[in-house]
Amino acid sequence: MDDEQLAAALKRRDPAALQELFSRCGDRLLRSAFLLCGNETDAQDLVQDTFVQALQSIHRFRGQSSLYTWLHAILLNLTRHYHRDRRRLVCDDALARQDEPAADSGLDPVDAAAACATLKDALQRLSPPHREIIILRFYEQMKIHEIASRLGISAGTVKSRLHYAMNELQRFMPGDLNLFSGPGTKEMEKR
Amino acid sequence: MNCREFQEQLFEYLDGTLYAEAQTAAAVHLAQCNSCRELLGAQQQFARIFSERLRQETESLKLSSRVRQNVVAEFEAGPISRASFVGWWQGLVWPAGIAVALAFAAFLMIGAPMTAHHQGNAVNQDGRREAQAVSIRLSYCAPVYMFRREGNVVTDSLVCAPEAVDGTIWVSRNQKPSSPQNQRKAPL
Question: Which pairs from A121-127 meet CB under 8 Å and 24+ separation?
Fold first, then answer.
């Protein structure tokens, strides 16, 4: 069953089609959501909302992209709302700083990077727009022009944001992933 | 093509989305420039290892049965599910509030100037009543946006506060209806 047939079955409200959608996109969406928000419980909720929203507007799916791409666009939109709502909830800067990892409250950045044990932690230190672009590029394996189209920004902005995000990521990256130590890196940083 | 130009197009080169001419120029530059070759190699290595690590860190995650059940329940509930109804209702709160406010403003603007006139002419020279009082009550819901602080968390909420406005319209046999008295009451 290809995407168009699956979408047609979903429009007919075929329960088997929904199970097929779960098996085809569920885990993959969840993993992407987890990387975007950094919390498994929230990721599960985001994916649930993604499926519910998608099923309510399945008649709008025109088959111009894959079903996964369409679902992922919905997920990305919901994740942005998620980050916006979280920002709105925390109003007291001083108290908000207490919630941040200890590395941000006085430790040297080198120590912070050393203390960062997992890639997930490193990702969570990025700003949401930088994290979003890193995930789209390296997890979803999207090309520059595809990211630009998905996010509604120019290719130049994508490259600039990706460049800064990668540089930022280097500060928090576990040692074995610190690949930019050669002369090429220095030139890239000058760019 | 120089180093700066190559590095500006590095991502497109990796994607293979450069035009043929630019692709050729980049290949020529790479053959001559050691530092750009190293940069390209580092980028490719980063992308490969980073992508692999992202997959390793997330491969144990599975969509929970709770989520599957909830989605199935929404799916079986039909296109007009509870969630969509709530969304539809919430979408109408502000337009409805504005419409009520405009109607109320129009009511005050039209009714108020006529009030004094009719109060003074409710009884004619023969002592007979020319107008008859009709009491009306306009009930509406006013949207109220509130913030509540709990520790370091501020929660915002939009609630609908019931309000009512009482008024009296004097209806005359010969004249147009009017509203001599408007009195806003406390919330119901």
Answer: A121/A172, A122/A169, A122/A172, A122/A173, A122/A174, A123/A35, A123/A38, A123/A169, A124/A38, A125/A101, A125/A168, A125/A171, A125/A172, A126/A165, A126/A168, A126/A169, A126/A172
